[in-house]
Amino acid sequence: MQMSINLTVSHLRGVVALADCGSFTAAARSLGLAQSALSRTIADAEQRLNVSLFVRTTRSVHATADGREVAEHARRILLGFDAGMRDIESFLTGDRGSVSIACLPSIAATFLPPHVLAFRQANPGVRVSIKDGLLANTLAEVRAGTVDMAVVATTGPLAGLNQEPIGTDSFYCSVPRTHRFALRASVGWQELAGEAFIAFGPDSSIESIARRALADAGAQLGSIIPAENVGAVAGLVAAGLGITAVPGMVLPMMQFADLAHIPLTPTVTRNISIAYLPGQRQTACTRAFIEVLRAARA
């Protein structure tokens, strides 16, 4: 049902100020208005409500019973309105709001935490949510617009997305400490030929990079056991069932297995990038978080 009462915020502020001050001169001064402008505002409010809100005398102004009631309601409305406007202002300036980020599990576990911490310390009123998953799922979240941005590891451009590199991540050979590679300063990709190998699953961004590097080196692996996550890969390597190739960002997630990690040569890297939809208007919160990541790159 449409309401017949049509008061503006200016009407409400005028009624509250006049009820509090008891004088058109003082109320107008508190609102930064001319006295005549406030007088017109109050008269218009009374006409719209069809009641007398104030009794005017030559010396003072007193709220009527209706005026006191309307002023109290107006005061509550203005408190909510002003709080809402402050929230909107804080959102637009980036002081309040939210940032949603999709990323790979290794990035969520090792790369993002210090940057999220720095961002939260500078922007305590902003909520940060992180959705970690496989690369295909992460990119699908960005393309669907269900997250503000993604932080991913790739070796090339991403179709249909803006991509901004913020770092690189090189590969290591992870082996049990009893393995012949364990004390080496480096291991060539070609030396992995014939080795039993623990491979990441076909949906992993790591697997495709490692497979390409092995092919480029002409290394034919021995038996291969695929595993879907970092913990499983590390556990299988620790059990002596094979060795593996992993990017440096993953190594902290494998500490429990007490493995040796040796740089692989020639160096193979994956690019750590911010990805977002082209033409998408980013919120102030998202722009602020991207600046934190850019600062890390610098």
Automatic annotation (TrEMBL):
SUPFAM superfamilies: Periplasmic binding protein-like II (SSF53850), Winged helix' DNA-binding domain (SSF46785). Residues 7-64 form the HTH lysR-type domain. The keyword Membrane does not apply. One of its GO terms (cellular component) is cytosol. The keyword Transcription applies. Transmembrane segments: none annotated. PANTHER family: HTH-TYPE TRANSCRIPTIONAL REGULATOR YBHD (PTHR30419), NITROGEN ASSIMILATION TRANSCRIPTIONAL ACTIVATOR-RELATED (PTHR30419:SF8). This is DNA-binding transcriptional regulator, LysR family. It comes from Cryobacterium flavum.
